[in-house]
Amino acid sequence: MPGLITADSDLEGKELTEKSSNVVWHHATVTRERRERQNGHRSVILWFTGLSGAGKSTLAHATEERLHQMGCRTFVFDGDNVRHGLCSDLTFSARDREENIRRIGEMAKLFTEAGVMALTAFISPFRKDRERVRSLVPHGDFLEIYCKCGLEVCEQRDVKGLYKRARAGEIKDFTGISSPYEEPDDPELVVETGTESLDASVDKVIALLRERGIVDQAAAE
Fold first, then answer.
1. 81-85, 111-115, 150-154: which range is least confident on average?
2. Is 21 annotated as catalytic?
3. Which of 46, 53, 61, 99 could anchor a disulfide with 119, C-beta 3.0 to 4.6 Å?
4. What Cα–Cα distance (Å) separates residue 41 from each residue in 45, 147, 210, 217?
5. CA 206: distance to chain centroid?
6. pLDDT recorded at residue 3
7. Measuring CA to CA, which residue among 18, 48, 35 is closest to residue 130?
8. Using an 8 Å Cβ cutoff, are 82 and 121 in contact?
9. C-alpha distance across the termini of the chain, in Å
């Protein structure tokens, strides 16, 4: 049909940069503050970052388990799980990695508005991408948790064989091997996941939440 734009023709390889002028933000009567009061705790983004194999997912899920036992409302955004659905259309190119983190940041922000603690477990290797997510939410709503673990230990833990494949040149732009990881400059918490126990690491995260007033002292003990 004349003038018809299809995804297979005119739009292929192009970006849609125009935003609709008909989109208006709707303000709900049930606010974040009301949801937080009902939940009995504040909402927050816990952003676990670190190399592949550093223990981000393990720590995020263990922290969620502890918080769940304390009666908190939580959800973990795991890197692999997200790429099965929300970000299944993205590759691992630099541009798509940036978009992956942008989407997660926006989703995590929505969860905080819902009064839920959003825990994310992504390599998120670039500072600018992590800082972009931080800028989406008010001060104090984004807690960067650096899962610090040496590359050698991460490779020893490599049950998927990804490091081996990356060193063999089978995986391009692999963080820590052929693509850089930019350590956080000033994270809210550094957890030595290469040397300390999982319980000790969880204790540190819970202590941070208590110090920031996100969970109260009685609930955290």
1. 81-85
2. no
3. 46
4. 13, 25, 10, 11
5. 18
6. 42
7. 48
8. no
9. 67
